[in-house]
Amino acid sequence: MNIPAWQYIVSMGGYILFLLLMVEGMRRTPKLTAAFWLLSLLTAPLWAENLDGWFRWAKTVSVLIPTAIVVGGARIAWLYHDNPNKFLSFFRGDWVLKVLYAVLFLNIAEATVKDFATANYFNAICGVILCITIPFPRYKNGQRMYWVIGRGKPNDLLFYSTAAWNFLYTTWNLAFVFGENPGFFASSFCILMAAELYPLIKGRPELYMTARVYTLAFHILVRANADIFTPVMDSSSWANEQVLWFWGAINLVLHIPFAIWYFNKKRNNPTGEPPCGKNQPLMSEYAGTELDPVMRGKRIRV
User: Fold this and answer.
1) Are 172 and 192 in contact (CB under 8 A)?
2) 70 lies in a domain?
3) Is 111 part of any domain?
4) What is the span of the domain harbouring residue 112?
5) Would 199 be classed as within a structural domain?
6) Which positions ≥6 away from 92 have C-beta within 8 Å?
7) pLDDT in tens, 227-251
8) DSSP character string of 170-226
């Protein structure tokens, strides 16, 4: 499809702006946002017309269901953090953070398997490195929390990784899409850039995962129901095997020293915790809540 450069600039710029505003709106309205994502699951009967192959189905299901049920439920539960209701208490539990960790791991692993299947080996190895360097929600002898739902409004999903991990995840993901389906590279570039830009604009790196969850989920929801991106930003003509090879190689050159640094910092930390971002909450800040191991399994009132 022959699309002029100005159309890419307008459509991609407009999509990024929309996504930034959408993330801001979804952060501010946890109840409305939870309702939106739950209702979005009702479109499932339409997905079969637009999803083709195991990867697209796995990606859609593994993103939309956790976004609607786990993220939405947890944000509502912490919005009413002083309510002892069993259902709300359940969604304030430690299992939520473990599930979200697993979803991110699965998201990367799915793409990594696809990279190996399409012989994008350098980038596939990067995916493995990203999987093993995702910080756990917390560590056995640790003092800090790496994943948490904020206790204060608007009860964001907060992810305390490093700027390096976030950047490497972005460039790895871009290279993956460039190889897996270059026709949607332009639109995928938009959601990845919006997720990078939002925490920078807000000055809060820990909001990266919130932005990533909502931009990815929206993009996947749209693609599962209709193809609105091909007419306005089809990037099939951008496909280039040589560029893909070099991109994967450059990614690997960046990922290997990061992995060495990551595990070296983790090994030399007395608590065994990996490096993290700034303003990371301590486990003591959630003492007396469902995230406190001492209180787990008890009915509590914060």
Assistant:
1) no
2) yes
3) yes
4) 5-41+51-286
5) yes
6) 74, 77, 78, 81, 149, 289, 290, 291
7) 999 999 999 999 999 999 999 999 9
8) HHHHHHHHHHH-GGGHHHHHHHHHHHHHHHHHHT-GGGHHHHHHHHHHHHHHHHHH-
